[in-house]
């Protein structure tokens, strides 16, 4: 199947579902517990995508060594995030460590 058509189809379906909720739905407040759960669900969805990609970048076995630049960059980003709680700094340091590790240390 053509990947472009697949992605466009998913985008159209997602847009239609969201538009239907706004157009047909009655406005109401969501409880604090539901809002908190929705925020956690998004975070866990991202973790489910990022962690396997970081631990197993080639898709076979886990590569828990210093020669895995994705893992080293992710660990640096976790440390910066835990210390500063600044998302932009976390992203910048994680990417810088990843590219530095990949380009200089592993060269």
Automatic annotation (TrEMBL):
<protein>
    <submittedName>
        <fullName>Branched-chain amino acid transporter</fullName>
    </submittedName>
</protein>
<keyword id="KW-1133">Transmembrane helix</keyword>
<keyword id="KW-0812">Transmembrane</keyword>
<feature type="transmembrane region" description="Helical">
    <location>
        <begin position="88"/>
        <end position="106"/>
    </location>
</feature>
<keyword id="KW-0472">Membrane</keyword>
<dbReference type="Pfam" id="PF05437">
    <property type="entry name" value="AzlD"/>
</dbReference>
<dbReference type="InterPro" id="IPR008407">
    <property type="entry name" value="Brnchd-chn_aa_trnsp_AzlD"/>
</dbReference>
